[in-house]
């Protein structure tokens, strides 16, 4: 039995993915803080919605999907009630496996995961690390859970905050760029719907080429950038405005914020 504790955006996305992958609703349970949320999850997925304590008692795998700021309270509630042999998987940004282990009975294995919202379309990037009591079999169980909803990569836990900044938040940066490009279309007099369609299809085409061509992004960009042409005129402006440096600093800031989160 797998229990998702705090089935909000990420928890629900994982829940729906796991069901799409063929697990039966009877193999899953979830918890929610508000009754209307519990009712919605029950109705939408036909799964049992239970209390955190009941989930901790009955499930063999607990997926913690509350916000980092709510993790301390949740662990205080369930920590002492988790039976030996339960696997704890945390999806929270910034929360270290040590933070969780300190609040659980000794030797409970913890796997830390950073996924992203494309879980919803089975295109997630999930990176996983073993806590100090987790071994190969626990990483395999986490991979089994996450592989149906996207790619999974093992990394050392020291890189988890960096991964949170890069791929956890990553989709937001692409959406932000799309927003800015659509604004540019508006500036040039395009109808909004047409601008959005052009930008989204360009993003999808670029993403598929990045994934499937095996070419380095620099070569793909060079192929678009004709000598004396239009693309280089745009790139000159991006360089002039320090966009590359802004990206480096933005992602470093996200990594640093992740490091602060366990402290509340
Ligand atoms: N959003 C994203 O893109 C990503 C988020 N994450 C991580 O995933 C985690 C969840 O984020 P997200 O899904 O966006 O957040 P949400 O706020 O959507 O989901 C968290 C859910 O947990 C519920 N909750 C809080 N405390 C408890 C409790 N004690 N018992 C039961 N339920 C509880 C909340 O209830 P209520 O509805 O009442 O607030 C909410 O529904 C975070 O730790 C975040 O760092 C990781 C990768 C990407
Ligand atoms: O912004 C956040 O804190 C979460 C973690 C990664 C993506 N969203």
Automatic annotation (TrEMBL):
Binding residues for NADPH: 52
E.C. designation(s): 1.5.1.2
Reactions that this protein is recorded to catalyse: L-proline + NADP(+) = (S)-1-pyrroline-5-carboxylate + NADPH + 2 H(+); L-proline + NAD(+) = (S)-1-pyrroline-5-carboxylate + NADH + 2 H(+)
Keywords, alphabetical: Amino-acid biosynthesis, Cytoplasm, NADP, Oxidoreductase, Proline biosynthesis
Compartmental location: Cytoplasm
Cited Pfam families: F420_oxidored, P5CR_dimer
Binding-site list for NADP(+): 5-10, 65-68
GO molecular function annotations of the record: pyrroline-5-carboxylate reductase activity
InterPro entries in UniProt: 6-PGluconate_DH-like_C_sf, NAD(P)-bd_dom_sf, P5C_Rdtase_cat_N, P5CR-like_CS, P5CR_dimer, Pyrroline-COOH_reductase
Segments forming a coiled coil: none
Gene Ontology annotations of biological process type: L-proline biosynthetic process
Occurrences of domain Pyrroline-5-carboxylate reductase catalytic N-terminal (ranges): 2-94
Domain of life, source organism: Bacteria
HAMAP family recorded: P5C_reductase
Family assignment from sequence similarity: Belongs to the pyrroline-5-carboxylate reductase family.
Function field: Catalyzes the reduction of 1-pyrroline-5-carboxylate (PCA) to L-proline.
Protein name: Pyrroline-5-carboxylate reductase
Species this protein is from: Actinomadura namibiensis
Taxonomic lineage from the root: Bacteria, Bacillati, Actinomycetota, Actinomycetes, Streptosporangiales
